[in-house]
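Hi C.,

You asked whether I'd gotten around to modeling the 278-residue construct. I have! Everything is below, sequence then structure, no commentary in between.
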Amino acid sequence: MRSASRRSRAGILTAAALLTAGGPLAAGTVPATAAATAVTVPVQACPAEQTGPGQPPLAAAPASVALPDGVTPPPTAAVYAARYPGEVHYLVAPGGWTCDVAFFGADGGEQAYVHPGAPVADPASARFTSVVRAVFVSGGVQTDIDLACGFIPQAGAAPNTCLAPAHLPADQLHPVATHAPGLLLTAVGVPSNTREPNLPTTGGPDRTVALVVFPPPGGPAQEITCTIPAASAPIPTCQAALGHFLATGAAAEQLTPADLSAALHDLNAFVAAYLAQP
């Protein structure tokens, strides 16, 4: 079992580089609506980091991947590949940003941060004003609970114990309905200049939208946040970031195609409505 220390920095391995090769998705690569056939887009691989003794080698990132149905990144976005021992995770963010990958060797936690500017040595402790951050693996049973229970009270219900603080009253929460037993999805909106204690990348001058996933017993809790300046048309990019995360993450394994399509539609509507507020 993985360690339950979510905040542990022991064994963190980080790597970063400004990804310019390949650039954003070319105009016309992605249609305005989901097509019947898969749309393939290039992948920008995040830099490799060193792994500890006895761990599997980093998985190789493919040159391209197919977009899930219902996920339509804008032409200015890119798909990034974050590599970890034995596996690869993907996230959508603005093209040409910096990708920092964090792997917590002590408990197996896997995170990725895509942001403008220079690379940082420890992205999990850095403060970003603009970032797409994903928690692919939280690091253990208790960290799964704490990742979600601040926004999803059922995650901390007995026999579980929630150690995370309550979310701020200023947050806007939107449960995303599914028919999957035990699967809980909640979209979150955090106002600008508001430091939400459960979302460490909040607090900057722009709004943040997030998706928190709490699975049935045995599955990993996951989380993604998207904070993009209002002047950079954040709605389509954040819709694609959260939607791609949902459609390729642990939750998708529990959803039928129809259920996933409905969840994506609901999630897109929330992101558009929240970020369009004056």
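If it helps when you're writing up: Residues 1-23, 25-35 have pLDDT under 50 and may be disordered.

Thanks,
B.
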